[in-house]
Amino acid sequence: QLQLVESGGGVVQPGGSLRLSCAASGFTLDVYAIGWFRQAPGKEREGVSCISSSVGRTSYADSVKDRFTISRDNAKNTVYLQMNSLKPEDTAIYYCARRRSPYGRCGTKLYEYDYWGQGTQVTVSS
């Protein structure tokens, strides 16, 4: 059964760090681009970061550039999102998703992704 499961969310103070994990089952993760998205209360879901298939080219939203790092462990079939220097505006539910077509680059549109995890809550508050 194809599945994505996020973990690692929690409550952290401003300036703190968290590492989110996205564990895949039912498919080989590095064949697909994997994106991280987030949705804050009352706001639309937005792209945060993405890692392409195969060579693993990465991309970031301007709001998280130089603070977040996406990576992939093929042996564990898992993608990570290391989040440093967290700000209150990073508070959201974070989702990982698989891009629809294999061997592809990252995409920015939600409809380009076909499988989504259940999400993990990140709260940045003092």
**What form results from the Cα inertia axes?**
globular
* Number of beta strands: 11
Helix content: under 10%
DSSP helical segment count: 0
Rg (C-alpha, Å): 13 Å
Unreliable runs? none
Largest sheet: 7 strands, mixed
- Average of per-residue pLDDT values: 96
Strand proportion, as a percent range, falls in over 45%
Instruction: State the distance separating the first and last CA atoms.
Output: 40 Å
The ordered H/E elements are EEEEEEEEEEE
Structural classification: mainly beta
Please give a structural write-up.
There is one protein chain. The protein has 126 residues and is mainly beta. Helices cover 0% and strands 48% of the residues. It is built from no helices and 11 strands. It has strands at residues 3-7, 10-12, 18-25, 34-39, 46-51, 58-60, 68-73, 78-83, 92-99, 113-116, 120-124. The strands form 2 sheets. Strands 2, 4, 5, 6, 9, 10 and 11 form a 7-stranded mixed beta sheet that branches. A 4-stranded antiparallel beta sheet has the order 1-3-8-7, with no helix packed on it.
List the helices and strands and how they pair.
Blueprint (H helix, E strand, L loop, with lengths): L2 E5 L2 E3 L5 E8 L8 E6 L6 E6 L6 E3 L7 E6 L4 E6 L8 E8 L13 E4 L3 E5 L2
Parallel strand pairs: 2-11
Antiparallel strand pairs: 1-3, 3-8, 4-5, 4-9, 5-6, 7-8, 9-10, 9-11
Please tag this protein with its features.
4-stranded antiparallel β-sheet; mainly beta; about 50% strand; about 0% helix; globular; about 130 residues; 11 strands
